[in-house]
Amino acid sequence: MADAPKSFLLTPEIHEYLVAHGTPPDEVQASLITETAALGGIAMMQIAPEQGAFMTLLTRMLDVRSAVEIGTFTGYSALCIARGLPDRGRLLCCDVSEEWTAIGLRHWEAAGVADRIELRIAPAIETLRALPADETIDLAFIDADKPSYGAYYEELLARLRPNGVILVDNVLWSGNVTDPAQQDENTVALRAFNDLVAADDRVDAVMLPLGDGLTLLRKR
User: Fold this and answer.
1) Could you tell me if residue 71 is inside a domain?
2) Cα–Cα distance between 209 and 220 in angstroms, integer?
3) Sheet holding 203-208: strands in order across?
4) Which CATH number goes with the domain that contains 171?
5) pLDDT value of position 131
6) Structure pTM?
7) 194 domain residue, yes or no
8) For the chain, what is the radius of gyration of the CA atoms?
9) Is 216 in contact with 208 (CB distance < 8 Å)?
10) Angle 76-84/98-111 helices, nearest 10 degrees?
């Protein structure tokens, strides 16, 4: 489970040590990691276990009541956020795949957090634009198609409460964001997004070398 770090900055040995010295995945999370790994190479879309532990801790620290996730895949990040919510907290998950999210649904039930999660199968931008314009979101997580990051960010920021937080995944993109030879659509989109939020005076931003790079944004 911990021998294939998602972070290009970590050796397998350091990653194993890091996971072992934090809150470890529980039985349900371990099952979800194993089932996702069986999907093959696409399993790299799942967040790292240490990132999941960080997200649970952050959700609790912020006393999150309303959360939104863009890009659910097999549901590990949603499970981690939901574990940090109080009983009346709610997480809205946006994804387009019934096949992948069905894996998550089973594990959310097994973990006893399914009643905290609402899954909407539809293009995420449509789901976001249909939400009330009120600033009520406490926490959001973006981990979906990279060219749409900017659009997701704008819709979420408009609905985020002051001091609310947006987490954005894959911002280092295996280091490709610093390689000028990499000009594919995803890398170019991530560079543009990273530049956008670094210069945005509506937020405070920090980029963390966690997983494949995680940006934390606080709405001023």
Assistant:
1) yes
2) 23
3) 117-121, 90-95, 66-70, 137-142, 160-169, 214-219, 203-208
4) 3.40.50.150
5) 98
6) 0.96
7) yes
8) 16
9) yes
10) 30
Q: What are the tokens at 207? A: 């980029």
Which two tokens mark 64? 């999150």
Residue 27: alpha-carbon gap to chain centroid: 21
DSSP letter, residue 89: -
What's the half-sphere exposure (Cβ side, CA atoms, 13 Å) at 188?
4
pLDDT score of 3 more than 60: no
* pLDDT of the residue at 132: 97
Total domain count, the chain: 1
Number of Cβ within a 10 Å radius of residue 161: 15
> Has residue 4 been placed in a domain?
no
Instruction: Look at strands 117-121 and 137-142 and give their pairing.
Output: unpaired
pLDDT above 60: residue 2? no
- Compute CA distances 107 → 52, 68, 75, 132, whole Å: 15, 19, 8, 29
For residue range 59-110, what is the model confidence (pLDDT) as tens digits? 999 999 999 999 999 999 999 999 999 999 999 999 999 999 999 999 999 9
Residue at 6 is within a domain: no
* pLDDT tens, position by position, 177-220: 999 999 999 999 999 999 999 999 999 999 999 999 999 999 99
The per-residue pLDDT for 23 is 93
Do 6 and 47 meet the contact criterion of CB atoms below 8 Å apart? yes
State which residues form the domain around 45.
Answer: 12-219
Alpha-helix residue ranges (DSSP H) falling in 90-182: 98-111, 124-129, 149-159
